[in-house]
Amino acid sequence: xxxxxxxxxxxxxxxxxxxxxxxxxxxxxxxxxxxxxxxxxxxxxxxxxxxxxxxxxxxxxxxxxxxxxxxxx
Length: 73
Description:
Elements: E1 2-3, E2 12-18, H1 22-30, E3 38-44, E4 51-55, E5 58-62, H2 64-67, E6 70-72
Antiparallel strand pairs: 1-6, 2-3, 2-6, 3-4, 4-5
């Protein structure tokens, strides 16, 4: 299983699981990122932080640490 951080730009993936707990997991879910949702990776900064994605038609920036908690297929 791969994390969102490992996905190259221009690729679409489906969320299979959110790891992490508490406030961090709640913040990710509040962005609309839940199991089964499709995410398109638009851009990754040169050092990998932030990761810019499109979720449910919204453009979001995720911290690298948050992207590592999102397992995708």
